[in-house]
Amino acid sequence: MGTSVKPARQPSLFIPHGGGPCFFMEWTMGPPETWDKTRAFLENIQPSLPETPRALLVISGHWEEDVPTAGAAPFPELIYDYSGFPPETYKLAWPAPGSPELAGKVQQLLLQRGLPARLSVTRGYDHGVFVPLKVAFREANIPVVTLSLARSLDPELHLAVGSALAPVRNEGVLVIGSGMSFHNLRALFTGGALNRSAEFDRWLTETVESPAAEREVRLKEWKNAPHAAFAHPREEHLIPLMVAAGAGGNSTGRLVFRDSPMGAVISAYRWD
User: Fold this and answer.
1) How many domains does the chain have?
2) What's 219's domain CATH number?
3) pTM flag (> 0.90)
């Protein structure tokens, strides 16, 4: 991150990371083309950026700690935190370096806002990190820092976390919330999710595309949205969106991707 050339301001993103290692299997959960559109969206992220990011700051729905915790390992290992998939998916490699320097800055930015924050020198990249980023940044040559969710899953706290981290975007750091805008696994496998997921998705998109002050109020009260409890029986896959939205600052978010793999509507959002 040490360079004298002023970097371009990077956006803040909320992306779907798919189902398990879905982009790297010969068979899929559904027809062969189930995740093709999601893959294409992820592949287009890097070309859509103002320039190559100096680093990636990723908030995954698969890491929770008592307080927000930044991964500070210089060379994080992959965490194959999925089960029941083909043997080759436990041999995937994505050797992106970490950035202890950026992790320390993340901790300091949070502490300066009066928010609790810790570092972990052992945390690796869970599949909410390496699976989508192996598609989006296949060369694995950009430093990555991961940030946990707080186990409370409090939307107000995570919006504040994102707001505190917004300055790193001006330093060429791309902020990525990695989750799923719909995450009811039972409904995905048994069917009948399309209409209710679409109603929740319409509310979520309207919320993201609202002015910042209105967006924040609505996100804090997301459980009042249509079919909220159905879309997220547990909200760990939605909370990364709160961080991304908070990091979006006063920018109005916009829908940048929508599809319905496995019969449920999922979306991605961007704040420039």
Assistant:
1) 1
2) 3.40.830.10
3) yes
